[in-house]
Task: structure prediction
Amino acid sequence: MEFKDPLTKLMIYRSLFDGFRDSKISAIEFLDIIINSIKNEKDQNNLSTLLRFAKSASSVYMPIKYYKTYKKKIFNELRNLLEETLSSINFEKDLVKPILMHLPSYADEDDVQYLIQLMNLDSKLVAQEDRFRFLQQIFACRNIKLEDKQKMLDYEVKRDKNSDESIKAKLACNALLPDRKK
Result:
């Protein structure tokens, strides 16, 4: 059965999450349903809700042995949805926002180059706060030279005119660097 009304779907997602939270279904079952729902969700609010539920389920309730697998599945699903959305002629800009907001939290070392590519998209599409989120994930990556990371950060700070957000991003990125004193 397919539901078209966003409010009805949101209530179903909420009930599903409540069942998961109350241990009626496992984290794996819950995330499988969420991943399948992400593919077809076209409402920004519902997509945001699904991604918040997925983050909670994967980071708090997921057994460690499945964590990387499901993190990768969610990243790939978000990447596919983003590319599908951006490739349509009249894409829904509001649908891109929750994807860009949550995508970095599912990225691993292999996905960082994709985040770097996304930083080159139009600034009207990728908000500065998303760029800073991408940078934090980039700074956590060990496969990118420190100088390259610093250049990207300096560019974004300059682009943001050294606002409070850029100061916060610099602190967060620098906290992810290895200790230089050792």
Observations:
- The mean pLDDT is 91.
- The longest helix spans residues 64-87.
- The CA atoms of residues 75 and 106 lie 5 Å apart.
- The chain is about 75% helix and 0% strand.
